[in-house]
Amino acid sequence: PIEIEEHFIDALSDDFRSLRSCSLTCQSWLPRSRLHLLRRIRIQTRTALDSVLEFLERHPHTRSLIRSVAMAPGPMERTRLFEVYPVTLLRELPNLCRWEIRAPTLDKKSGPQKLAFHKTVLAHFRYSPITEFHISFVSFTSHAEFIRLLMSLPSLRVLEYHDI
Q: Assuming Cys at both sites, which of 22, 68, 90, 155 could form a disulfide with 33, CB separation 3.0 to 4.6 Å?
């Protein structure tokens, strides 16, 4: 019965490789596997972001499955992935609860990456359902910039930061 199959897939909810295998094993397993595979997504490059957006365009019914987005670019991506591109993605996700930005750890001489969000980007955040915001290895151009970002997230309930 499908209930047993779904229970089996649910037990694998934290095992990405197994879930991916389940999604390819049988057509009836795809929806439940996708539920877990899409719950938390991680984006490290502009190409990965474009792939996610393309997938969401082809499968609009999956947009509501994504609850958490982690943006953790590699050293070559720099901060642009954080500053402008989130708007494109965030407005596509009606049930997004958690957003994480993690800059690549750099050598101590260069220090943390500095972020500044354009007013237009901050305006888009006002309409997002984000309740959790996690920041790591990031610095802001000023304290006011950090406050503006937090103020643009009206549903925010949890703020976690490391090395900012």
A: 22
